[in-house]
Amino acid sequence: MSLREAFAAGRFAVTAEIGPPRGADPDAITRKAELLRGWVDAANVTDNQGAHVRMSSFAGSLLAMRAGVEPVMQLTCRDRNRIALQSDLLSAGALGIPNVLLLSGDHPRFGDHPDAAPVFDLDSTQLVWTARTLRDQGFLVSGREVGTRPGWLVGAVENPFAPPRSFRARRLAKKVAAGAEFCQTQYVFDVEVFASWMARLRDLGVTERCKVLAGVGPIRSLRVMEFLRTGVPGIHVPDEVERRLRGVPGDRVADEGVTMCVETIQRVAAIPGVAGVHVMAFGYERGVPEILERAGVGRRPALSSSRSEGLGHAG
Amino acid sequence: MATDDVEPGMAAHDAWPRPFRPRLGARLGYVLHAGLAANQVYARLAAWLERRPRAYRAFTAAERVTKQELFGCRMCGQCALPATGYTCPMTCPKQLRNGPCGGVSPTGTCEVHPELTCVWVVAVERAEAAGHGADLDLLQRPVDQRLRDQSSWVNYWQGRDEDLWTAAGDERPLLRRDLGLAPTGVTR
């Protein structure tokens, strides 16, 4: 079963995240993939997340595929101009990577090379547009035709919690007009704000054309909570979450965080138009099956053998 | 976050574009635009300027000074102001032309320059207050990097801006250059 098939079948979809290592060890990907295999429809392979140098999302996606986990290859506008972006999109198509997720990317300011040139030749909406034109019309941005067209599913991201909030549903609508077929959101800790954003998406007709996966994840320590609050741009941790985590003894914070994540999954799953969840559990991939099981989201149907060899690309 | 690694005082990010709060009201922007709207006289002036490098340089310098002062213009040569509530998206450190990134802080400040308000927060406020909120739904095409440092007025009068943006939902291919829909409420 693949992400595309889960969407087509209308089954509650689950994606997770695999962050490639700072190093050339392929087993770092394989180990994480093995923890997730069978529990997710696909796993994002991040693209130099937080503007920190890592193994590429392209190589990581191939390694994940080899380990039996369908990848969602992330591709950011931060490090590549339109030539490199389109080349990577074609390469992903050639090697059967079934999904791409296109985003602006964190600014180099936040990474380990703040002295690097930020590229941002295209923005994320333009990249989505470029990808859909490439796949469906067979044209590059230049207007030149391509030979064999790639076949990946086109994903985008949105942050329902960041200002200007009134514009956030329309911003996703623009990406969907440009061609996004699924969307993963920033961490949902404030379900009410998320629900009103979803209502707006339904009004705009976005949920009819785009599968929306709510971003979730456990906060397993007060240190991580502080980091999410202050160290990562665009994450909204409401006071109620803080009160709950501070309200339990220190040795129970991790459990409480996991419980809150389980509750969040159950609450977002009940919102009309939510097609699934995107579980972000950095360094806690081993806990993903437990979170899903407790939330009542079962194992995934078995992967077809061709897909586990990385050849099952529907094109 | 590794931002701690940046030595204080280096101000390395000062070279990045900085969100600029326009010094000209959005409504006045729309009024002035009507005065600059492309017509045959302007088209002839633009053609004349392009044949005379010194005059073109002087004209472009005047445009640069005016628009830098009013909008923080970075001379992309393909002005998006009429579609963004007269708020320049090229002053976004990521130069996003289709809306804000996901890193805007809860108080509306830029993730790269936390002391400044996100330029898209300002753009949405200004466009909506001036009754031009629908312009923000237009899809902005990729920037033509060859036009940097050129006069966007000359390019506009010469008709090169006509497909900078298109209507959301238009299914036609990206670069079949037959689109170029004007934003609502703007006479072109």
Ordered list of secondary-structure elements with their pairings:
The complex is a heterodimer of chains A (315) and B (188).
Chain A (H helix, E strand, L loop, with lengths): L2 H7 L3 E6 L8 H10 L5 E4 L11 H10 L4 E6 L5 H13 L4 E5 L20 H14 L15 E6 L6 H14 L3 E6 L3 H14 L1 H4 L1 E6 L5 H10 L7 H8 L6 H17 L4 E6 L8 H7 L10 H4 L7
Parallel strand pairs in A: 1-2, 1-8, 2-3, 3-4, 4-5, 5-6, 6-7, 7-8
Chain B lengths: L25 H11 L3 H12 L1 H19 L47 H11 L9 E2 L11 H6 L7 E2 L22
Antiparallel strand pairs in B: 1-2
Main attributes of the structure:
heterodimer, A: 315 residues, alpha/beta, TIM Barrel, eight-stranded parallel β-barrel, 13 helices, 8 strands, 14% strand, disordered C terminus, B: 188 residues, mainly alpha, 5 helices, 31% helix, 2% strand, globular, disordered N terminus
What is the number of domains of chain B? 1
Using the alpha-carbon principal axes, give the shape of chain A: globular
CATH architecture of chain A: Alpha-Beta Barrel
Sketch the major β-sheet of chain B.
2 strands, antiparallel
Report the order of strands and helices of chain A: HEHEHEHEHEHEHHEHHHEHH
Can you characterise this structure?
Chain A has 315 residues and is of the alpha/beta class. Chain A has 13 helices and 8 strands. The longest helix of chain A has 17 residues, at 253-269. In chain A, 57% of the residues are buried. Chain B has one domain. The longest helix of chain B has 19 residues, at 53-71. Chains A and B meet through helix 5 and helix 6 of A and helix 4 and strand 1 of B.
In short:
The complex is a heterodimer of chains A (315) and B (188). Chain A is α/β, with parallel strands linked by helices and 315 residues long.
